[in-house]
Model the fold of this input.
Amino acid sequence: MRMKSEAVSACLIRVATWVLIATCASASLADERTYPHKPIRWIVPYPSGTASDIVARAFAVKLQEQWRQPVIVDNRPGAATNLGSELVLKAPADGYTLLLSSGTSVTNAALFDRLAYDPARDFIPVSLLVRSVLAIFVPAQSAFRTFGDAVSYARSHPGQLAYGVPGIGSIPHLAAQQLMDISKVSLVSVPYVGSPRLATDLAGGHLPLAIGNLFVHIQQVRTGQVRVLLVLGQTREPALPEVPSVAEIGLSELATDGFVGVSVAAATPRDIVQKLAAELQRIGKLPDVIRQLEQPGTRIVASSPNHYGRLLETEAARWKKVIREHNIRVN
Done:
């Protein structure tokens, strides 16, 4: 009888163990299926109202509608986007804290002597949301009618022609460095903290030249305050059919653009990353989102994680070379 009792007890223990394992597995699967089951915080390391912020809010509204969970856009500008990046890494890597990533994701590691994180190691890409056209601008009253005019002047007046850019180490700044290297000219950079003041000074004739995002200056172009000399792309911009691209003038290696996307902490479960990416891709195809975001100079991409990852790797290698060659530093 005692042996029979022990056998029954052992059997009960095994059954209880199996039930416990099955219960835990079911709970785990249920938790995965229910993502997201609480509010999502989207860190935007730029001020409210900027182009990056507008992109994030457009996608956040649709995420919230689809998943019926609050998606809170949290603007945390500062320290060349490092403040926002660090906040994401301090949060649990569970897919509930997102980072709006941009050009700084591929430049900061080379620009700063010390960072509290490694952009390539500590984050993983989710989706490239939008790409933006970069261009070279002059005030309406400028004597430069073409890009060639500006280059000719710079060659005959070395170190005298100034150009404005939205920040030291920004993609427009680095693109200008490449332009000078290839064109064999010497220009003087005038870095601004962001684009608004730069746009005002350019339209007012206080800057003879500027490099930046087309969407920032498009209203000035439309009202005749500013002219575009060159689009830094492989093809012409449909909104400016008369303006040549760098590829057309034989400078394909200068082709570049701006971008914003979504990244998360590297330890975030891959199934959550894929689910989030799939939803962002769906949103990017919605007609009302396209109408809102696809203005002259911008194009919705809403890519896969792999696509965004390849872009980040390529851009990081490209700009690291420029930064090192010119010894550009932020701190």
